[in-house]
Amino acid sequence: MHIMATAAAVVALTAGLLQTAVQAQPSKPAHAGGHSTAASAAPMPSGGMDMKAMMKESNEKMAGMSMTGKPDVDFAMMMRIHHQGAIQMSEAELKDGKDPEMKKMARKIISDQKKEIAQLDKFLAKQGHSMDMMKK
Which of 29, 75, 90, 122 could disulfide-pair with 109, CB 3.0 to 4.6 Å? Predict the structure, then answer.
């Protein structure tokens, strides 16, 4: 039962983050006469940030992960996927973002998450688990 609670907590956390990210995305305003501004009509740049798709990919990886029955191992494996998603989103922010404060935060997230992934990898290795075991 502990395993299911851990898995449910991680998935709920990620779903909450996805909900927040979706709500934070600006909606396109309706303009009188059907005209739109250049900003609202501009397509997402090729390779641009698609936070929703990044979160969906991370959620699918966690949901599709085979559980071991060991709460600590399952937690470490799911958190590794979650942290890798944070790195991916932060790299996209560095590439496409404009705000210096957000870019600074993205650099910190990348640094912090890489350190934590190294800790998770070390723990998983001690437990006899590798990245290949994280896949279905």
Answer: 90
Cα separation, 52 vs 50, in Å, equals: 5
Lowest mean pLDDT among 14-18, 63-67, 112-116, 125-129: 14-18
Q: Is 10 exposed, middle or buried (0-12, 13-18, 19+ CB in 10 A)?
A: buried
Residues 6+ apart with CB under 8 A from 32: none
Answer yes or no: are the C-beta atoms of 90 and 107 closer than 8 Å. yes
The amino acid occupying position 42 is: A
Rounded CA separation 36/64 (Å): 41
Task: Find the mean pLDDT for residues 63-82.
Answer: 92
- pLDDT on residue 52: 85
Pair of tokens at residue 8: 């449910």
Residue 67, CA distances (Å) to 70, 77, 121 in order: 8, 9, 17
CA 55 to CA 71: how far, in whole Å? 23
